[in-house]
Amino acid sequence: MECYEGATMIKTFRGRILDGGQDHIRLKTNRGDIGYRITKFQIIGGEPGEAAMLDTVKIYKLKQTTINNTIDFTDGDLLGAAFVLQSSGSSGPFDMAVIFDQEIFNQDIYVTHVDTVGANSCNYYIELEQIKLNENESTMATLQSLRRLALPRN
Question: Domain 9-148 belongs to what topology?
Answer without folding.
Answer: Jelly Rolls (2.60.120)
